[in-house]
Specification:
Elements lengths: L1 E10 L3 H10 L10 E11 L3 E10 L2 H8 L2 H6 L10 E11 L12
Antiparallel strand pairs: 1-3, 1-4, 2-3
C-alpha cells in the first residue's frame, strides 16, 4: 500500500471555496488501476490559514506513479490554480509506503 498526501495551507477566508473546488472537481481517480481511496482532510487553523491534506491510498507506489503520468491525472489537474489564490505557496507532497496495516474487522466502513 502507498499513501500520497499533499498538504495545503489554505487562507482562512478561502477555506469554504477550497472545499467547494475539491467537492466539485472531477478527479478521474476511478479510471486508474491501483486507486483505492481518496480523502480530503481538514486540520488545525492558526488564524491566517487552515491546514488541509489530500490523501489517496494506492495498491503500490508504482500505481501512484503511473497515475501521475496518465491522461486522467492531466484531466484532473487541468483547472488547478484558478484565478484567485486559495492557499499559501505550493502544496507539500508526502508519500508513504505502508510497513504495517491493522484493520478492525468488527467495524464496517
Amino acid at each position: 500500500m502507498f499513501i500520497a498526501m499533499n498538504r495545503f495551507k489554505v487562507f482562512s477566508a478561502e477555506a469554504g471555496a477550497f472545499e467547494t473546488v475539491w467537492r466539485e472537481r472531477d478527479r478521474h481517480l476511478s479510471e486508474v488501476p491501483g486507486f483505492v481511496e481518496f480523502h480530503l482532510l481538514k486540520g488545525p487553523a492558526d488564524g491566517e490559514t487552515v491546514l488541509y491534506a489530500s490523501h489517496t491510498i494506492w495498491r503500490s507506489r508504482g500505481d501512484f506513479e503511473n497515475w501521475t503520468k496518465s491522461e486522467a491525472f492531466r484531466k484532473a489537474h487541468g483547472g488547478a490554480g484558478g484565478s484567485k489564490p486559495l492557499f499559501q505557496g505550493h502544496p507539500q507532497f508526502e508519500g508513504f509506503e505502508a510497513v504495517l496495516v491493522e484493520k478492525n474487522d468488527r467495524e464496517a466502513a
